[in-house]
Design a protein that fits this description.
Layout lengths: L2 H96 L1 H4 L2 H46 L2 H24 L3 H4 L6 H10 L5 H55 L3 H6 L1
Length: about 270
C-alpha cells in the first residue's frame, strides 16, 4: 500500500472517530436533556404532592388544634371561676346571717340572687366546654394519625402518643386522689333530710344559725377546693396537649421540608 493510500486510510479512520465522538457527545446532550426534564417534572410533581400534603393534612391539624386549645383554655378558666363563684356565695351567706336586717331588704336580695344565677351560668358553660373539648380532641387525634401515616412518621407518633396518654392518665388520677374525704364519704341520700331539717330549723336562735353555717362551710370548703383543683389539672392537661402537639408538628414539618428540598441526585437515583 502506497503512502498516499495510508494517509487516506488514516484520514478516514480519524473522520470516523470524529463522527463517533460527535455522536457520543450528542447522545450525552440528548440524554442529559431528557434526564433533566424527567427530574424537573418529577420534582415539580413531588412538590405539588407535598403542597397538597400541607394543604390537606398539616394546616387542618394546626387549625383544629388551635380551636381545641381555645376551648380547653376557657374550660380551666371556667373551673377557677366556678370555685370563686362558690366562695362568693358562701361569703354572702355569712354576711346575710350576720346582717339579717339588710338581708331581708328588697333592694339587697337582687344581689345574692344574681350570684346564684352567675354560678348556674358558669356550670352550664363548663358542661358545654367539656363536650366541645372532648369532641375536638377526638378530631385532633384522628388528624394526627392521618398526618403520621401520609408522612411515614407513624412510629414516631405512636411512641410520643404512649408518653402523652400516660401523662394525661396520671393527671386524671391526681384529680381523683385529691378529692376530699368529705366529698368521697358524702351520701346523696342525706340531701333530702338535710333540706327538710333546714326548712324546719328555727333560724331566730343563734345556735341554729351557727349549726347551719357550720354545715354549709363543711360542704362548701371541699367543693371550692375541688373546683380549683379541677382548674389546675385541666391547665396541666392543656399544657401537656400543647407540648405533645408542638413535638409532633416539629417531626411532621421536618419530614415535609425534607420532601420539599430534595437534591437532583437523590431524585434521579430514587
Amino acid at each position: 500500500m502506497s503512502d498516499q493510500e495510508n494517509d487516506i486510510r488514516v484520514t478516514l479512520v480519524e473522520e470516523k472517530k470524529k463522527d463517533f465522538s460527535f455522536l457520543k457527545q450528542l447522545l450525552l446532550l440528548i440524554l442529559g436533556s431528557f434526564v433533566f426534564v424527567v427530574v424537573a417534572e418529577g420534582y415539580k410533581s413531588d412538590l405539588g404532592r407535598n403542597k397538597d400534603l400541607v394543604k390537606e393534612y398539616y394546616r387542618p391539624v394546626k387549625v383544629a388544634m388551635s380551636n381545641c386549645l381555645n376551648h380547653h383554655n376557657q374550660l380551666f378558666l371556667q373551673y377557677a371561676e366556678l370555685g370563686g363563684s362558690y366562695q362568693l356565695v358562701f361569703d354572702e351567706l355569712v354576711f346575710m346571717f350576720n346582717n339579717q336586717e339588710t338581708a331581708n331588704s328588697h333592694d339587697y336580695q337582687a344581689f345574692p340572687t344574681a350570684l346564684l344565677k352567675a354560678n348556674h351560668s358558669v356550670k352550664k358553660e363548663i358542661e358545654s366546654l367539656k363536650t366541645n373539648v372532648e369532641s375536638c380532641r377526638v378530631k385532633v387525634y384522628q388528624a394526627y394519625e392521618e398526618l403520621a401515616l401520609v408522612t411515614g412518621k407513624f412510629d414516631s407518633y405512636k411512641e410520643l402518643s404512649l408518653e402523652h396518654f400516660d401523662k394525661l392518665n396520671r393527671l386524671n388520677n391526681s384529680l381523683k386522689d385529691n378529692i376530699s374525704t368529705e366529698i368521697k364519704n358524702f351520701d346523696v341520700k342525706e340531701i333530702a333530710p338535710m333540706i327538710r331539717e333546714f326548712l324546719t330549723l328555727d333560724l331566730s336562735k343563734n345556735e341554729n344559725q351557727n349549726l347551719l353555717m357550720q354545715r354549709i362551710e363543711t360542704m362548701s370548703r371541699p367543693v371550692i377546693e375541688m373546683e380549683m383543683n379541677k382548674a389546675e389539672v385541666e391547665q396541666n392537661k392543656f399544657n401537656e396537649n400543647k407540648r405533645f402537639h408542638d413535638a409532633l408538628m416539629e417531626i411532621f414539618l421536618e419530614e415535609i421540608n425534607r420532601r420539599n428540598s430534595p437534591s437532583i441526585v437523590s431524585q434521579f437515583i430514587g
